[in-house]
Amino acid sequence: MRDAGPVPLPAPVQDTLCAQDTLRAQDSLGDRALRLHDRTLVVEGHVDTPTLMLDEDYPVARRHTDRRAHLDLPRMEEGGLDAAFFSIYVAPYYGNGARAVGRARAMIDAVTRQVEATDEAELATTAGDVRRIARSGRAAILLGLEGGHALAASPDTLRALADAGIRYVTLTHVNTNRWADSSQDEPRHGGLTDLGREMVRTMNEEDVLVDLAHVSDATFFDALAVSTAPVIVSHSSCRHLTPTVRNVSDEQLRAVAENGGVVMINFFDAMVNPALDRTVFAAAHRQLEREAKGLRSLWSAVYDVKRARDLPGATLSDVLDHIDHAVEVAGVDHVALGSDFDGVFDLPQGLEDVTRLPWITYGLLKRGYTEAEITKILGGNTLRVLGAAGREGGEGSG
Ligand SMILES: [Zn+2]
Predict the structure, then answer these.
(1) Catalytic residue of the set 235, 322, 325, 334
(2) Other CB atoms within 10 Å distance of the CB of residue 393
(3) ∠ CA(163), CA(165), CA(171), 5° rounding?
(4) Catalytic site residue 46?
(5) Which residues, at least 6 apart from 332, have a Cβ–Cβ distance to it below 8 Å?
(6) Across all residues in the chain, what is the average pLDDT?
(7) Which entry of 146, 185, 206, 269 is annotated as an active-site residue?
(8) Torsion-angle region of residue 191: left (phi > 0), alpha (psi -120 to 50) or beta?
(9) 48 is catalytic
(10) Three-class secondary structure of residue 123 per DSSP
(11) How far, in Å, is the centroid of ligand 1 from the Cα of 24?
(12) Ligand 1 center to 89 CA (angstroms)
């Protein structure tokens, strides 16, 4: 649809400069991209930094230069990222009960402690909060729960975690739980159970966004049929370009558009890399079968195949291709960013950490998007769905 000419990448030799300096030196569009990026409210749908904050006492207020982690508050500022959903991720091995709930609560506490101890960030629960906090020059931190098993199959637990600040729930992780099937596990329910439908309705009542990343296709459409509010897909890319079950199909893109929701594009190499075609995923699936492993181990099998075939890594341009495709199928009002920073082990060249986000703006300008369209993709669309679910009457507040 658009001119998809190649976007030049920052030269490796410039890697030691900050992303803004390399962009300013790029061409006249670089400067325009920086100015647009700076005045736009940029929102990320999914970052996994809280796991580091809880398990490794990772100080989020300090700048980390070793690139092992992708995000901290100083680098958020450098990358012009105003707000991010911090993922309260509960691994499947915590089970379906009290241990999983405890893990979620401990992670919420770890994030809250660090955010309250710094002047550079504040916890947000509404679109109005995000605007107010961003205007004050601080980072707005939103909370999303990843893994419906951490609700312990209890709508009351959902209500309690909503009160603790959770603003979206990813219905499953890689595990099918007691009320919803995952895309990377055996389907046990054929989608959502009656309890699963009750969970979705309770999320609507509690102004908690329904997140359909990770779920099976049947769960996806079951949830859309029940939800009265716009849904999100917090960190998935396009199956048409990189054919993994973790990405959304064109049919799903159209369904989210019809629902008024937003698909937030994941940057993970294995979800945006065009070199990973059907034959690669088929080979990975065959390997899992041979080794009697389930789809939960998908990425390690994909990377075995990738290494064996000596396939190239993804680049910034590939992420832009996924944004283009999603915009082409769902429309520009239904696409946003959900990098999965600190949740993935391999990011595209040119998008190595959060400081590289202005390059997305540059790439979109280069491809002919208008400033109004770019503003929607960078954060406007996410704020719209957050406002639609907001307890305080929408995005105009605050
Ligand atoms: Zn995830």
Answers:
(1) 235
(2) 12
(3) 95
(4) yes
(5) 369, 373, 376, 377
(6) 93
(7) 146
(8) left
(9) yes
(10) strand
(11) 33
(12) 8
pLDDT computed for residue 148 by the predictor: 98
Ligand 1 center–CA 184 separation, angstroms: 11
Q: Has 340 been annotated as catalytic?
A: yes
Q: Alpha-carbon distance 104 to 88, whole Å? A: 6
Owner of token pair 């000596």: 310
Helix, strand, coil % (nearest 5) of the chain? 50, 10, 40
Expressed in angstroms and rounded, the spacing between residue 28 Cα and the centre of ligand 1 is 37
b/e map of 347-381 (b: 16 or more CB within 10 Å)?
A: bbbbbbbbbbbbbbbbbbbbbebeeebbbbbbbbb
- Please tell me the distance from the alpha carbon of residue 398 to that of residue 394, in angstroms, as a whole number: 9
pLDDT digits (tens, 9 = 90+) for 107-135: 999 999 999 999 999 999 999 999 999 99
Establish whether 214 is a catalytic residue. Answer: yes
What are the residue ranges spanned by the domains of the chain? 15-275+317-388, 282-311
Catalytic one of 70, 149, 214, 325: 214
In the numeric block, which tokens belong to residue 159? 């209500």
Contact 357, 341 (CB under 8 A): no
> Residue 63 pLDDT > 50, yes or no?
yes
* Entry pTM: 0.93
Q: 122, 211, 340, 342: which is the annotated catalytic residue?
A: 340
65 CA distance to ligand 1 middle (Å):
24
User: Cα(343) to centroid of ligand 1, in Å?
Assistant: 7
Confidence of residue 22 (pLDDT cuts 50, 70, 90): confident
* Identified catalytic residue from 37, 46, 149, 189: 46
Q: Which tokens in the block code for residue 141?
A: 């931190």
**pLDDT tens digits for 240-292?**
999 999 999 999 999 999 999 999 999 999 999 999 999 999 999 999 999 99
The Å distance, Cα 329 to ligand 1 centre, comes to: 23
Distance from Cα 185 to the centre of ligand 1, integer Å: 14
Which CATH superfamily groups domain 15-275+317-388? Metal-dependent hydrolases (3.20.20.140)
The amino acid present at 180, given as its one-letter code, is A
Q: How far is the CA of 130 from the centre of ligand 1 (A)?
A: 23
